[in-house]
Amino acid sequence: MDPNQNDYHISFFKPTTPQAKWNRNLAIKLILIWAVAVFGFHFLLRAIEKPTPEETYVKYEQVWESISSESATTDEMQVFANTTLSVLGKVFIKPDEKSALTNALSWTTFQLADSSQKALLQEQLAGFEKLKSEDISISDPAYISAKDKLSSLASGIIGLDRSDVRSKLISVSLSSAQLESFSETSRSMIPTIMSTYLIHNQSVLTDFIFLGFPFHYFYTAVFLLILFVFLCWLYCVRVDAMNVKLDIEE
């Protein structure tokens, strides 16, 4: 056998037959189309996107200087408490950031309360935390009653309407250990936390609604999937055509 014969050594990058070369070129073309469709769109998003703050962040910015200098009015402190609670309602928050937000909300709520409300807040919060420490079921009447009483009291203090969904969150977002002081650590973390969770990159591609979806979501979740299936189908069709052209079709 000729030692130089390499009929059984197949390389995608060094094809040795017309069929292999044609197949390689077709595969590269389709891969490039797919890569441009996927990565090109993301590069385009990054190029045209602009940081856009939520309305909540705008409100926070208006009061933060007064809060940090402890010269805020009642209305400003209520706005700060509500914006803090809005961030606490988000799903993914790092533990240390959640602790800082809890400190901010607890301290602000306590500062807003009058003398009788302060005592009642401490009493109800301590009772509610005791129930939570006992691993009581959240469907237990005692738990529900304590939670509702605390939510009603705290919501009234920070000027939050009881119909607001955030009122359901406030009872589990307060900490009795953080009522009386707003630590320097928490205070220094708040600006970064607020900008992280309340400022989002947006563009016409994210704001435009197409077939009921934001366009960027439709493109990545629907169009790219359809494009992938189409490219697979095109590859099969072109390979069949090549086989016929080279007279190697079975």
SSE order and pairing:
Blueprint: H1 18-48, E1 50-53, H2 55-68, H3 74-88, H4 95-112, H5 115-133, H6 141-157, H7 184-198, E2 199-202, H8 204-207, E3 209-210, E4 213-214, H9 215-245
Antiparallel strand pairs: 1-2, 3-4
Q: What are the defining features of this structure?
A:
250 residues; mainly alpha; two-stranded antiparallel ribbon; 9 helices; 66% helix
> Describe the biggest sheet?
2 strands, antiparallel
The quaternary organization reads as: single chain
Q: Using the alpha-carbon principal axes, give the shape.
A: elongated
Structural class: mainly alpha
Low-confidence residue ranges? none
**SSE topology string:** HEHHHHHHEHEEH
Q: Into which percentage range does the β-strand content fall?
A: under 5%
Work out the helicity level: 55-70%
Please tell me the total number of domains.
2
Strand segment tally = 4
- Trace the largest sheet across and list its strands: 1-2
What is the overall pLDDT average? 88
Taking all Cα atoms into account, the compactness measure Rg is 30 Å
- What's the end-to-end separation, in Å? 29 Å
List the total number of helices.
9
